[in-house]
Every structure is written in C-alpha cells, then in structure tokens.
C-alpha cells in the first residue's frame, strides 16, 4: 500500500450525504442531487447482489440526469433484515461498490436507494409504501427457494404455514408476497393502477413464478382481487448476472484503504448483465440506456446463464467443500475440479443450451471460466453451496432430465449429485465439520448417512429427485460414483471421471 493509500486508510471519511464532497480524489460518487430524488421502486431483499446490480444500473441512469423519480426504497420482511437496515440508514443508504477486475481494483459510491423501511411484524410500513401510486415497480431478491413453489409439483404451495397464515390474516402478513397482495388490495380500492412485480432471482421464468405466487395467494382470500392483479398487473421475466461475494473483513479493509468508512460495502466482479422482458404495467426506467437488454425472449438468455453459470457453480462448490478448497477461483485452479467442470459442461450441459444474439454456448462457457477464475473474487465454496436443495433442483436436474430424454450422457451429472450427497454427510475429507448450509440440512444429512451404505437412499427424496431414482442410466451411475467417493475419496473419483 502506497503512502496515499496508507493515509486514507488511517483517516477514512464516514460515508454520508454531507461527506460526499470529502471523499478522496478518484472515488466515483453521485453527481445528482440526492435530495431531489423521489421514490418509484420498492426493492424487497436488499442484499449485496441488489446493491451491486439493479441499484447500480439505476444509479448510472441518475448520473446522466435521468430517472430521478425512480429512486429505490429498500425493504425486508425477516428480522435479520433489520441489521442491514441499521447500517444503511446510518449512512443515508449510500453504498460503496468495490470492483475487483483481474488487472485493477476500483471504488464507486452509489446513491439510488433513498430509504430503508422499518422491519415490523405484520409489515405495515411496507404495505403503506407499496400502496402509494408513486411506487410503480416492486422488485425482489429473496433467493431461489423463497417463492413457495412445491418442489414436487412445481405449483404454488397453498399449504405452506406462511401462506396459510397470510391468507387468514391478509392485513398483517408475514411474507413479502402477502405484503404485496395487501398493498395491491389498497390500490385497487383507491382506484389506482397496480405496480409491476419484478423478480430478480435466478429462476427460470421468474416473472411467471412471481405472478403465480402473488395471484395464487390473493385468490386464497379474495378471488376478485386475484383476477384484477392477473389482468391489470405485470410480472416481467428477467435474467440477472454478476458475481457478488459476501462482505468479509477483507472487504471492510479494502473500503478503508480507499479512504471510506462504510459499514456495508459490496465487492463485485467487473461484469454485469441484466435482460428484462419489456412488459411493465405503469412505466419503467430506461435501464437499456446503461447496458441492460430489453427483449421478448428472456428465456434463451436465462437458459444459457442458469445452465452454464448457476449449474456450473454447483458443479464446483460441492467438490471444493469436500476437498477444503476455499473459493470458486481456487476450484478453477485445482486441476482435478477444473477438469471435471469442463468435461461436465462440454459433454452434458452445452448440448442443451441454445445460442443467443451475439453469443454461442462455447463462447459463454469461455467467459464463465474466465470469470470464475478471477483470483480477486473471494467467492467462497460455502456461499455457493448454500441451499443445494433449491439450487440442484432448479439448476442441475432440469438439464439432467433433458439429457435423459435425449439419450445423452449423464455420467457427469451422476458424479455431481454424488458429490452433493457426500458433502451433506457434514464432514470434509480432512475431518473438518461442514456446518449446516441448507434450510433442510437435517433432512439432507439423514439421507446422506443412509446413502453411505445404500446409495439409492439419497435418490429416494421425492421432493428433490421425483422419478429420477427410477432412471437406470442416472441411478446406476450415481450409485457407482457415491460408492467410489466414500471408498477412494473425491480426488480419485474426479480423476476416474475425467479419464473416461
């Protein structure tokens, strides 16, 4: 660290509206007058990804003097959201983004979010703001598993306790979707238009899924309201992409090195993509002017991204956890894991991915390999392996089913699923404990323990595998690979697979 960096790190500037002019030279910051901003978007789930991605696109528009009436109001519905709210409110909802490119590191302060609502039981503050007709978009990043979709049927789960509660207490809901329904009820009663619901989670057809959840919940208590939402509302599909690791002590140290005292900085790679169906019911910002893509064919883009990037993350993470490889970049530098990754991708994923304008599946895989290999992105295997019960079912198993239907190879998929089963046994090969890392961890560890002696026990989880346990090409290969991993170890299994 040079003399200037040492000086700024020793005396960082507290991040607030009234200190923006005091930030060190070279730090990008809002050029717009934040006091002039008015809200047009509520975003539920203000995690790192949202602040590095959707909020950044809006910030860029504001830097050009546009979309000043589309500022973001942050929100959450779970008690743990309160900690993030406290940090951001203390710094006027400003965020420092630290870009980690392979050849440089930069910092930018963004200001497109202007408030963060209190987290309260019953969600009254959230409902009140979403009922305001000035809010024209309600966006969400609440994780892939947060949409109350039955894993077996793919339909909206009307029997989930949270959903049953919200249907019975529509004015004091506990879920984000219950709050959306309550706000839409008020808007309808007042003669206002509905807002557009914009899902920003990694789900195929995410707008369709959000529609099914919101309309389905409304129908349980007010069928007329459900019909109105379905007819007058809008739920555009979208695809989002950027690698955004969790904030760590290293992130906090890095932001101080830039001379900024930020309690909630966000690190991110030097790549973003946002593809959106242009189907809003009450306007939207011109995100395409700052790099987003509006299209009627989001499906092709999301298919490429989910199958190559998101499924690829799961291919790497379980092997990395078992071998105590700490980050995704380290996995790409591990000869055995990297070779397995490329073989599964080229033989069992790329055949089921179509090209999109300007990009072939092979070109996209090369892009992903470069992004995953960025040594500055300390994206932990633990973070990527989180919630495998949603991510395997959402990202990997649909491709497996396509491969089975086409009579293609599934040997690599069988190995990947066997690695996940072995990881869920809860212990790495060096003997260290894998702490619970899935909402259904107890259930998974029980199945993993049974599968050590009888591998097919893992496949007998109907909410995950359904009828796949009866597909001989997959089930027999899975049994072979899980037995190999337990007997010979993960590295030996990887070597045996890549030598085939």
TrEMBL record:
This is Mannitol dehydrogenase family protein. PANTHER family: MANNITOL DEHYDROGENASE 2-RELATED, MANNITOL DEHYDROGENASE DSF1-RELATED. The keyword Metal-binding does not apply. Residues 297-486 form the Mannitol dehydrogenase C-terminal domain. Residues 40-288 form the Mannitol dehydrogenase N-terminal domain. One of its GO terms (molecular function) is oxidoreductase activity, acting on the CH-OH group of donors, NAD or NADP as acceptor. It comes from Maritimibacter harenae. InterPro entries: 6-PGluconate_DH-like_C_sf, 6PGD_dom2, Mannitol_DH, Mannitol_DH/Oxidoreductase, Mannitol_DH_C, Mannitol_DH_N, NAD(P)-bd_dom_sf. Keywords: Oxidoreductase. It holds the Pfam family Mannitol_dh. It comes from the Bacteria.
């Amino acid at each position: 660290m040079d003399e200037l960096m040492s000086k700024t790190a020793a005396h960082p500037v507290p991040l607030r509206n009234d200190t923006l002019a005091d930030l060190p030279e070279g730090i990008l910051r809002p050029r717009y007058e934040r006091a002039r901003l008015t809200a047009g978007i509520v975003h539920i789930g203000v995690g790192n990804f949202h602040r590095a991605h959707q909020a950044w696109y809006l910030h860029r528009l504001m830097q050009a003097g546009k979309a000043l009436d589309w500022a973001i109001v942050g929100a959450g519905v779970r008690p743990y959201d309160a900690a993030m709210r406290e940090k951001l409110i203390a710094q006027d909802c400003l965020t420092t983004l630290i870009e980690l490119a392979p050849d440089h590191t930069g910092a930018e302060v963004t200001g497109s979010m202007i408030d963060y609502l209190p987290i309260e039981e019953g969600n009254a503050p959230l409902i009140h703001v979403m009922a305001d007709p000035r809010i024209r978009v309600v966006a969400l990043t609440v994780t892939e598993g947060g949409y109350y979709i039955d894993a077996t049927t793919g339909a909206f789960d009307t029997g989930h306790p949270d959903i049953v509660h919200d249907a019975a207490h529509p004015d004091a809901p506990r879920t984000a979707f219950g709050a959306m329904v309550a706000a839409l009820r008020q808007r309808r009663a007042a003669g206002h238009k509905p807002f557009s619901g914009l899902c920003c989670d990694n789900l195929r057809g995410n707008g369709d899924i959000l529609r099914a959840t919101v309309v389905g919940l409304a129908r349980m208590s007010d069928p007329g309201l459900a019909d109105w939402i379905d007819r007058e509302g809008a739920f555009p599909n979208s695809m989002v992409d950027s690698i955004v690791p969790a904030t760590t002590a290293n992130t906090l140290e890095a932001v101080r090195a830039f001379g900024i005292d930020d309690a909630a900085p966000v690190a991110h790679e030097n790549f973003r993509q946002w593809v959106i169906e242009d189907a809003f019911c009450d306007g939207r910002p011109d995100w395409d002017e700052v790099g987003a893509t509006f299209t009627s064919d989001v499906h092709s883009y999301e298919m490429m991204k989910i199958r190559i990037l998101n499924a690829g993350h799961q291919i790497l993470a379980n092997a990395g956890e078992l071998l105590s490889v700490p980050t995704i970049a380290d996995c790409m530098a591990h000869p055995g894991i990297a070779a397995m990754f490329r073989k599964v991708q080229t033989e069992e994923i790329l055949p089921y991915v179509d090209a999109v304008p300007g990009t072939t599946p092979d070109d996209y895989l090369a892009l992903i390999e470069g992004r995953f290999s960025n040594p500055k992105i300390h994206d932990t295997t633990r973070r990527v392996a989180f919630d495998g019960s949603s991510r395997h079912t959402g990202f990997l198993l649909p491709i497996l089913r396509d491969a089975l239907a086409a009579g293609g190879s599934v040997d690599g998929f069988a190995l990947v699923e066997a690695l996940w089963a072995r990881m869920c046994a809860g212990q790495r090969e060096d003997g260290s404990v894998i702490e619970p890392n899935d909402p259904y961890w107890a259930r998974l560890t029980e199945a993993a323990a049974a599968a050590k002696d009888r591998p097919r026990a893992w496949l007998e989880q109907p909410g995950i595998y359904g009828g796949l346990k009866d597909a001989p090409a997959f089930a027999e290969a899975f049994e072979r690979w899980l037995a190999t991993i337990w007997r010979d170890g993960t590295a030996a299994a990887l070597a045996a697979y890549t030598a085939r």
